[in-house]
Design a protein that fits this description.
The structure holds 2 protein chains of 2 kinds. By secondary structure, chain A is mostly helical. In chain A, about 75% of the residues lie in helices and about 0% in strands. In chain A, helix 1 packs parallel to helix 4 and helix 9 packs antiparallel against helix 10. Chain A is elongated, with a radius of gyration of 24 Å. Chain B has a 3-stranded antiparallel beta sheet. Chain B is an alpha+beta fold. Classes of the chains: A mainly alpha, B alpha+beta. Chains A and B meet through helix 2 and helix 4 of A and helix 3, helix 4 and strand 3 of B.
């Protein structure tokens, strides 16, 4: 088997896209024809293929995170517009099925928060590692964050449409129609934004190194991620409780603050390791 | 030497291409010639670096035909030239500081 054939196999093994592979092989072929002895000094095909995969994989994962965050920004605008415009669309009182109505409301509260946190974490990590090849473990974490953010975004849009359907009897018709159309468009946009992340997953470099944790994201000196999570939960809970006090309902604010802090910790326990917040 | 060189390969490629556009093989030859043979990386490692620099907008490339052969020729972009100048300044300051300590 010739050197170029070996390199071709190694590149395919690492998941380098076909067009890029063709270009690499064409350049290498030209180089080797320029000086037949160069083959001995060219380096191992596996090592060269891995170097390409490390560069391309990191670039593709970072790009996927940027694309996802942009799409999430648009979906967030749809969500905010639906939320604000609902004030002019009669209060939602009657639901077709109370269980589905409650489910839609719960998803509309939880899913956007998961989506925002995962998307923001993906963006921060992508920005921090700009211009550098990342270890395989870190690429996995970055892709997971991106996909979790997009999936939660799709769930949010689905919940919004379900909410519009469940409370259609009491909400204004224009609001339901606008919500169906915008939520469907945003969900399709989010699905399209997941394509770069799926493609990035096909490139498989082998680069040793840790996946990092929340302190790598924030550029802080290392510490105990659980202490950090407790501090964030406390701060978020206090902010929600304070908002309740300002709105003149301290008991409700306190209850919501405790629930929000508990949700923060539950999210960290459930997804912290998966999303690379703790090792 | 080669491990240290890897950290500076991008700047060295930009410096070689500052004179004139060239293809991968010629860049490698020029690197060896200018360094008096000291920089002797596995030749294949230059291509991932060239592709990375092109993706970053520091290089541009295109196919050219010479003697019936197609070659990918790389040239410095305006951004690449600016990056090279800034790297030269950084390296100058760094090497002067190291020289001062070692002297």
């Amino acid at each position: 088997m010739s050197y170029v054939d070996e390199l071709s196999r190694a590149l395919a093994h690492r998941g380098i896209p076909r067009a890029t592979r063709r270009r690499i092989l064409s350049e290498v072929d030209d180089h080797l024809r320029s000086e037949p002895d160069a083959q001995e000094r060219f380096g191992s095909p596996a090592a060269i293929a891995n170097e390409y995969a490390a560069d391309l994989g990191s670039h593709a994962c970072r790009r996927a995170a940027f694309v996802a965050f942009s799409a999430l920004g648009l979906a967030g605008a749809v969500y905010a517009a639906a939320f604000v415009s609902q004030a002019f669309a009669n209060p939602p009182t009657e639901t077709l099925a109370p269980t589905l109505g409650a489910l839609a409301l719960a998803a509309m509260v939880v899913a956007p928060q998961v989506s925002f946190v995962a998307g923001a974490l993906a963006l921060v990590r992508a920005l921090r590692r700009r211009g550098r090849a990342m270890p395989t473990a870190e690429l996995t974490v970055l892709r997971r964050r991106t996909l979790v953010a997009l999936a939660s975004g799709v769930v949010t849009m689905g919940a919004l449409a379900l909410y519009g359907y469940e409370f259609a009897a009491s909400l204004a018709g224009w609001w339901s129609t606008a919500t169906y159309a915008s939520a469907t468009s945003a969900a399709l946009l989010l699905l399209a934004a997941s394509v770069p992340a799926a493609r990035a997953g096909r490139i498989r470099p082998e680069v040793a190194g840790p996946a990092g944790d929340v302190f790598d994201d924030l550029g802080l000196a290392g510490g105990d991620p659980w202490h950090f999570a407790c501090s964030v939960a406390l701060a978020v809970g206090a902010a929600v409780a304070l908002a309740g006090i300002v709105q003149g309902d301290p008991i409700d604010g306190l209850v919501r603050g405790i629930l929000e802090a508990a949700a923060c910790l539950a999210g960290f326990a459930a997804l912290g390791r998966y999303l690379g917040l703790r090792r | 030497m080669n491990e240290e060189l890897k950290g500076h390969l991008d700047s060295l490629i930009l410096a070689v291409l500052a004179a004139e556009p060239a293809h991968g093989y010629a860049i490698m030859q020029e690197l060896k010639a200018r360094s008096g043979g000291a920089f002797d990386l596995p030749e294949g490692t230059i291509y991932p670096a060239l592709h990375r620099l092109e993706r970053s907008g520091l290089l541009a490339s295109g196919w050219s035909s010479a003697s019936g052969r197609r070659r990918r020729v790389y040239r410095l972009t305006r951004r690449g030239r600016a990056r090279l100048e800034s790297r030269k300044r950084e390296w100058g300051a760094f090497s002067r500081a190291v020289d001062a300590v070692l002297a």
